[in-house]
Amino acid sequence: xEVFDIxxxxxxxxxxxxxxxxxxxxxxxxxxxxxxxVVWICYAELMxxxxxxxxxxxxxxxxxxxIAFPAGIALVAVxxxxxxxxxxxxxxxxxxxxxxxxxxxxxFFLQAIVTVLFGVEFRNLGVxxxxxxxxxxxxxxxxxxxxxxxxxxxxxxxxxxxRTYLGTAIRAISQDRTIMPLMGVNPSKIYLMTSAMGGGLxxxxxxxxxxxxxxxxxxxxxxxxxxxxxCVLGGLGxxxxxxxxxxxxxxxxxxxxxxxxxxxxxxxxxxxxxxVMFWKPExxxxxxx
Amino acid sequence: MSExxxxxxxxxxxxSFQALxxxxxxxxxxxxxxxxxxxxxxxxTLLRVISKLIPITSGSLVMEGRPYNELPAHSxxxxxxxxxxxxxxxxxxxxxxxxxxxxxxLPAARENFAERLEFVYALFPKxxxxxxxxxxxxxxxxxxxxxxxxxxxxxPKLLLLDEPSAGLAPVVVQSIFELIKTIRAEGxxxxxxxxxxxxxxxxxxxxxxxxxxxxxMSGSSAELLDSEExxxxxxxxx
Lengths: 289, 238
Description:
The complex is a heterodimer.
Chain A: H1 2-36, H2 43-61, H3 65-88, H4 96-118, E1 131-134, E2 137-140, H5 141-163, H6 165-173, H7 187-210, H8 220-233, H9 239-259, H10 262-279
Antiparallel strand pairs in A: 1-2
Chain B: E1 3-14, E2 17-28, E3 32-36, H1 43-50, E4 56-63, E5 66-67, H2 73-76, E6 81-84, H3 96-103, H4 107-111, H5 113-123, H6 125-129, H7 140-152, E7 158-162, H8 170-185, E8 189-194, H9 197-203, E9 206-211, E10 214-220, H10 221-226, H11 228-233
Parallel strand pairs in B: 3-8, 3-9, 6-7, 7-8
Antiparallel strand pairs in B: 1-2, 1-4, 4-5, 9-10
Helix pairs in contact in B: 3-7
């Protein structure tokens, strides 16, 4: 029985580590949705491109990781800005379903282009961080680092949004966009900056995930739908809701997987999602930022 | 007295609907001017046009001798024109102080943030008490103070007020008009759009009567108050 409890604790802690990463992804997606009112279905594919960018720089070009990682973040930030400028801006006043479909198109476009460039083989960075043992529990070092960096990035984003003029404007624009010009704020510029920032967060997630997973062109599908569901679960556009929901969801995956099988963790998590949608369709926390 | 804001023969509208037909008006430095008229006359449209939230179809806008027809909306505040929009339009889930910070978004205003904040808090001590409260949770009168404070944060030369008394309790309406007197006394030039004609004419120097998008009449407050037409149509006095 005691061993059982230790492994349960391990599952809970691993869920916590996963939660931090999912919270980072949810933050980026929520930020963009909150400001621009468009869901980037292809958000995890931007991250996937970042992972390939980092892998290409490090493995193919031979750049050290301390260059490849920042370059990966910058790449996805630029990609986020380009996404807004070339894809979202033309459909800003279109029907929401069309906006969604356009970003869905970008999802498959990015998958296809990465397949053309790098093939469908599994790739990895060739960096394996050790695992650490605490008593009888084992934790992956890469996951621990990813968790700490994700939490630090979320904290930094929080400070940015609450303490700076630009951050306040980002929160303000999601509450009343039509009067922003009266404050001297150019909404188009805020949209572009928010998109770049959302991209940058996806780029950071790429750095953290590329240390843990082998990459392939469809890896975005392992994270995109979950990220989207987490945002919906927390109340779409609600940054705090997304943060909480990420940890709740990760616990279902991790602890559910512990009691049954890993795959069952996802089954239970998605079942939980469906039930919440019946019970509280507006999300666990109502729309508030 | 020098001209601050001038509109020459301005027409504007929404899509195919024309709301303003060749409107000309002028606000001189240090003056308080009102635009009065019935609901739907185009008064709010006029202020939106001055702030460039709506493009003009013909005519010209001039601030301190400089035409600004071509300026984007977010640059108008840089000319020294700040607007308190209709319905206050605070950011409901930002605190009072964050709303005020948004009013000082321009780089030039940021430099003087502390000083401006002190000025606004001196003008509205209640806002200082409420500085950490979410703006959406305050009463209508308090929100109006916050909205005016937000516009003053940029250190404007010209303050545009869109129906500041709308939707407020009568006793609060009184205090808002008192406030406008105070703001005038601080040396601000004010252009105010109001339906509460009797009240507004007591606090401004001159006024224009706008009906169905056209200026019908203009003159000093006393002249308008004495005018047969205004008394009959708007004040209900024979």
